[in-house]
Amino acid sequence: MSKRYGVAEALKETSLEIPSGQVTALIGPSGCGKSTLLRLILGLIVPSSGQVSIDDQVVTPATVQEIRRKVGYVIQDGGLFPHLTARENITLMGRHLSRPVDIPALARLVRFPEDGLDRYPLELSGGQRQRVGLMRALALDPQTLLLDEPLGALDPLVRSGLQTDLREIFRELRKTVVFVTHDMGEAAYLADRIVLLRDGEIVQEGTLEDFQKHPATPFVTEFLNAQRALVAL
Ligand SMILES: Nc1ncnc2c1ncn2[C@@H]1O[C@H](COP(=O)(O)OP(=O)(O)OP(=O)(O)O)[C@@H](O)[C@H]1O
């Protein structure tokens, strides 16, 4: 598939298979098409050519609502409704679909304090907001989880704590996870498989070790070197 916005080609003709039950990281320089790829998977935008299938079901305007119920999604800034409390944000879809949401279990899973559940997003810290976004995405127990920079604008200590928690959550839940990051250390720590993009194209797919030992192009090495400190994990 591919995606263009007007004349700009955000994603060139690309074919990507996401293994189920595994964690995949999409990484690459700013503007390379990571978020575009994630939005295409979710059906938030329509490909200019080709198609997306989830569990053999093609994402179309007719199927997108049904598919989205099987997919949890955390957008770049968390995307919480500011006029709803954490609890109301988390249960919104469940109420809409008359499905129960086990809030105490979710709060334990993401280590969110129960007394924060009745606060509004503005009354929570950045890290807590990310945890609420994650609880909301997990509320209906989706098979697939898509996260657009889930640890974006967080200070390094909070980020590192959340990385540890996310890794445990991913291992525990064994869902199909696709997340976007700028950070190779984070990708290597959290993901089974890394997909490196550049200028709307996939440059290489594999593990950090594959990238280090068998770089597909000089750009792979250049990208790794630019993140040297983090890759020395
Ligand atoms: N709605 C839009 N209209 C026009 N161009 C867009 C739109 N959304 C994204 N683009 C362009 O498409 C390209 C890919 O954008 P995308 O958001 O997928 O990149 P990204 O890799 O997620 O970047 P970042 O890491 O900075 O978030 C960029 O050149 C961007 O400017």
From TrEMBL:
What are the protein's UniProt keywords? ATP-binding, Nucleotide-binding, Transport
Which GO molecular function annotations are given, in alphabetical order?
A: ATP binding; ATP hydrolysis activity
Domain ABC transporter positions: 1-224
Q: Which Gene3D superfamilies match?
A: P-loop containing nucleotide triphosphate hydrolases (3.40.50.300)
Record-linked Pfam families? ABC_tran
Q: Which domain of life is it from?
A: Bacteria
Under the heading PANTHER family, the entry gives: SPERMIDINE/PUTRESCINE IMPORT ATP-BINDING PROTEIN POTA, SPERMIDINE_PUTRESCINE IMPORT ATP-BINDING PROTEIN POTA
Please state what the protein is called: ABC transporter related-protein
